[in-house]
Amino acid sequence: MESPSLTNILCGGVLVVYMLSSSTFLSGAAAANDDETAVPAMFVFGDSLVEVGNNIYIPTSTNRANYPHNGIDFPNHEATGRWCNGKNSADWLAERFGVPSPPPYLSLDTKTASSYMAGASFASAGSLLLNSSLQNPNASIGFADQVGYYETVYQVLTSEMGSAEAKTLLSKSIFVIVIGSNDIFTYQANTASSETQTIPPSDFTNLMADNIKEYVTVSYNSKLDPSSICSFSITQQTAFCQELVDPNNLIELQNPMQALYEHGARKFVVAGAPLLGCTPMVRRKFQTHEACSEPHNSMAATYNQQLQNVLADLETHLPNSSCSYLDTFNILQDLIQNPAPHGFEEVAAACCGIGYLRALIPCFPFSLYCSNRSDHVFWDFVHPTEAAAKLIVDAFFDGLSSHHDNLSLKQMAAT
User: Fold this and answer.
1) Given the residues 263, 296, 376, 383, the one annotated as active site
2) Which helix H or strand E contains 238, and what residues bound it?
3) Which of 43, 110, 313, 328 is least enclosed by beta carbons within 10 angstroms?
4) Could you say which of 3.40.50.80, 3.40.50.1110, 3.40.50.300, 3.40.190.10 is the CATH number of the domain covering 6-192+203-212+256-403?
5) Which CB contacts under 8 angstroms, 24+ apart, belong to 247-251?
6) Which is it for strands 119-121 and 42-46: parallel, antiparallel or unpaired?
7) Of 149-153, 235-239, 254-258, where does mean pLDDT reach its minimum?
């Protein structure tokens, strides 16, 4: 088995979804699923924060987590491809909704309706929100391709179950979208060495948010002209910007949520970007245990506001749909500032890794790992521990976080 390279790990995924709470957050274990939250299936789209093993089934991918010490607290201590010591946020969501954790789509040998009755996971470490040729199909499943796989599932369900029955199943199902952190990490990595920024951060995050909602085309009939956002750089054009505006590489992307909606989806759970500047990976780069990276956090906050505007507009224009936005940014900030009430002690260093903050070298089989994993917020250089993931999901499921101002996940399930 080939271990992932450090380059692939860097863009491997990032817990974008679901990070945790303030002093008003109740952190007790959540009750099991009951009749009022009956959900037949859950479909998951995103990056490594919710991946359950798709990349294992991409023969050319080294961007995998199916090796120790990942999975050390998972049943049978199995490294399944989750970037975690145990269950991740997708697993805890499924448990709360009362459905089996959706299997990796690529793991299913039989593509029949019975294979998808409890849902499927299309999430893949390294996935980008923006549909650029920078997305390496030999290493990860891009977001557009994830949506394309789901459309195949929809065709199978409607063909075997009949259109009416399939649409009923899907209208009651939950569609989880956890994506965007890798785009921000890529942007920051590409601009860090340049004296000028190729694309202003707010324009870039606006493009990300629009990619959730609108078509991205060569003509680009939106508010933002890709050629103009690249004109800010005089001395250097980064590869990311060049790929973005090159007509030969820019791929037309249908609005993902619109596409999902047209194929039966009605209940969307969409996570904002977390406090990316406070991850062990970013803290290590700046060699400071206390301070976080303001550029990363500022960009994440800007994207989150733009994303909320997009979701509000979509909910208005998609009849009978509901969108629950997960404010991961402020919740993680609360957890880092007030860890003790929630049972955590270490908020800066990773549990598994090597080097400063255990974030110089990721969690490989030869890496060091902590024994007190439930005390740590971060399992590795960027992903949360099983304990943190559970508290995150419980907060949003029950609507107990002070930062949750829309439907709780429990309320959404009951609608």
Assistant:
1) 383
2) none
3) 110
4) 3.40.50.1110
5) 247/218, 249/132, 249/133, 250/132, 250/216, 250/217, 250/218, 250/226, 251/131, 251/132, 251/133, 251/144, 251/216
6) parallel
7) 235-239
22, 48, 89, 293: the active-site residue: 48
Each residue of 35-47: pLDDT tens digit?
445 899 999 999 9
* Gap between the Cα atoms of 387 and 288, Å rounded: 25
Q: What are phi and psi of 5, to 5 degrees?
A: -75, 165
Q: Look-up: residue for tokens 């707010």?
A: 202
pLDDT tens digits, residue range 304-339?
Answer: 998 888 888 888 888 999 988 888 888 888 889 999
From the candidates 183, 203, 380, 398, give the one annotated as an active-site residue: 380
Distance separating alpha carbons of residues 46 and 123, to the nearest angstrom: 4
Q: Which two three-digit tokens encode residue 242?
A: 């060049």
Question: What pLDDT does 312 receive?
Answer: 87
In sequence order, what E strands does 32-73 have? 42-46
Which DSSP string do the residues of 374-397 spell out, in sequence order?
GGEEESSSSPBPHHHHHHHHHHHH
At residue 40, the pLDDT reads 97
**What value does the mean pLDDT take over residues 192-218?**
60
